[in-house]
Amino acid sequence: MHKPTFMTLTRHILEGERMHPEATGELSALLHDLSLAAKVLSLEVNKAGLVDILGLTDQSNVHGETQKKLDIYAHDTLIRAMDHGGHLCVMASEEEEDIIHIPPHYKVGKYVLLFDPLDGSSNIDANISIGTIFSIYRRLSPEGTPGTLEDCLQPGDKQVAAGYIVYGSSTILVYSAGHGVHGFTLDPAFGEFILSHPDIRIPEKSNIYSINEGNYKYWHLGLKKYIKFLQDADNIRGEAYTARYIGSMVADIHRNMLYGGVYMYPSDIRSPNGKLRLMYECNPMAFIIEAAGGKATDGKQRILEIQPSSLHQRTPIFIGNASEVDKVHEFLETEILPD
Fold first, then answer.
1. Per the domain annotation, does 339 fall within a domain?
2. Which domain holds residue 319?
3. Same domain, 304 and 254
4. What is the tens place of the pLDDT at every residue in 309-323?
5. Alpha carbon 328 to its chain's center
């Protein structure tokens, strides 16, 4: 009987690099540093109810949202884990208004890291799955110099790798370097991420949709009709779809990665530019979904082709099974948003 290969995250990354003779090992080292930060955050999230780390601070982030204590801890942990390795020239975080420079006494590298330290943090106190999302680019500015805002404001199709970590019943790290998507589950017994979900492909068909239906009255008329279409057992699938909405993007999309489905966070009358952040949430998730055979758009164009104009730019997103995203577009194109 063939025994399954005992594949750690570090080994998987290194073996992937061996297939590319031009690889320098820097990306592998960068991903390794991220996995270390994920282990630290996993430990803190899992014991959050036992220590004075939950609850609100008296501070707000750049978006005017009150920050949770664990948000700040995750933000600081990722910076401390990543700023000294010599692989990055600049970082940016959803929790920080400006770019984050590498301290002058550390070597600067050729990569750029953008991250959402704790996605779904409004669910922290309710013990619902939350996560970290990250996005990696190559720098545009001259090597050896401090990174710039221009290095961060690249379209998503320039990403060299992206991933997310889900802190739930187990801690799972999912990443893609553009060729396949792989998931690794943290074994707490010896502190290693072990390959548990090789070559993830989003199922081509599904009956799951994820959207906050509490915002229904503010939606585009075409989107309202699409949702009714999904709920109608007489639709072309011959069955009503099932709504599954956690309220944590990383958890909702991770479920849909495995079971199939479409996740939607649309623009509406109150938020004409959408609510989710292009650089920290939508670009990395779109990169991963496309690598798994899915599709991601803003309702008009491919997410990964949007040229960002600001660090904290927002966008609508429709992401998941390619056929379902295409179907959303059909409905959106038949109606116009009322004044």
1. no
2. 208-332
3. yes
4. 999 999 999 999 999
5. 21
